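Course assignment 3, question 2. Fill in each field.
Student: A.L.
Task: Predict the tertiary structure for the chain below.
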Amino acid sequence: MAPFLQNFFVVFKKTNFTQQQKSVEISITEKSLKGYKIVHLSDLHIDNKSNIDELRDLVTEINALTCHIVVITGDILGTKIKNIREKLAVFKNLKHKTYYVSGNHDLVHGYRGLKKSMQECGIICLDNKYEILTFKNKKFILAGLGDRYSSFFRIKREAKTLVETLERLPYPIIFLAHQPKDYIYAYRAKSKLFLCGHTHAGQIYPFRYLVKLTQPFVSGFYNYKDMAIYVNNGLGTWGINIRFQADAECTLLQLCA
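Answer field:
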């Protein structure tokens, strides 16, 4: 192969579940959450080809991080549950309290099966729910919304009810959803931080520009009025196991005022 072709192809990266860590400082308006640390994962797309040893390494790497919680913003599944039970069981070894919301691929491959598997691992589903947590003796809310395609799978998505409930609560809110376009619900609930995924940052350049046609935010940090937004590029891939100028990530978010 000619040298220039070798240089061209080397930038196309096959993704794995390890060595994708990065740390990002997120500036939010809520001073009481300054210093809070969240490990943010998204879009693992675990399937038959996923390497179980890499998943074990991922859990080991997360356990080594200093954080308060781990959140997964959807698309854990890339195939039917029956094909990957052993791989999902790896998450039993996570030592940090972990939450997730469903993504569109989770709905396709088995929402209820995923919920059962995650429950067995001690991982909490936050679809259309919230929990009141405490940091430095002050309360805040971690809320989640199920994927926007839930109704197509006869699964309730109670966006309006969730927002109306959150509006009445006197605590700052961190809001999780799979797709960036659900930022509007986070904003209506007066959230301080909205975390999501789904986009893969386009996965292969220049597809990020096509993603921009359907999603208001594509990758990384944004500010929408008084709400901070972070769109995670995800760890897995969809279609083909290749990324180009859209690096995978497992991100330690450090909140600062």
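Instructor remarks: DSSP finds seven helices and twelve strands in the chain. The chain has one domain: 18-256.
Grade: pending
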